[in-house]
Amino acid sequence: MSRLKDKIALITGSAAGIGLATADLFAAEGAHVYITDVDGEGTEKAAAELLAKGLKASAMAVDVSRGQDVTALMRTIEQQHGRLDVVVNNAGINVRTDFRNMTDADWVRLREVNLDGIIRIARDAFPLMKASGRASLVNLASIMGHRGMRTLAAYGATKGAISALTRGLAVEYAPFGIRVNALAPGFIETALTERVLRIEAFSKALLEQTPLRRFGTGEDVARAVLFFASDESAFITGAELAVDGGMQAAL
After folding, report:
1. Is 34 a residue of the active site?
2. Among 26, 34, 126, 155, which one carries the catalytic annotation?
3. Can you tell me the distance from the alpha carbon of 64 to that of 68, in angstroms, rounded to the nearest whole number?
């Protein structure tokens, strides 16, 4: 359990769900984890639980859609460690609405978190990842970046852009020893999906299109993130891994 021994890792949106599961796993694997989220109390609670286990963690309230928050985060990490070995762009939101009824405000809110936030973190963390010399950047895309579903057109557009961004950054960052990969989760049981997954008919229909016949967990995704974060994927960059129970293959 030391695949990330002495690594410095940043995980956005990590006070709950996939991000929290990833933070827990990274810390158990030896990393010093920066738990960041708009939920400041949640970050403090998550970090305290890891520290109580003798693991290494720091907490910071960060809204990735706010440039000043990201600047303060990077400055803190630079002062305390001088490098970043792993960055996980996990923060994201969803606004479910028929596209024809979507307001400009809905779109701006989605874009500012799901796309602008990832771009900002990937750009502003570059000097710290370069200082590592063997850094890994992992972006959380989605199955919806490759498939269409009613009320998810705008969300899917932001996630599809993340997939394209990942490929471009993999090429641009490679000379600096930075690998860039993405994960495309399917339907994972988190607070983000709770409202729709509890609708019996919808849940049943989704499971029928999932060969493994279950929804994913935060831990399922976290283990895939760990693969990209660790040296086990040392010769992989520009790739995207589906963590969806086979849904993309079946649709």
Report:
1. no
2. 155
3. 9
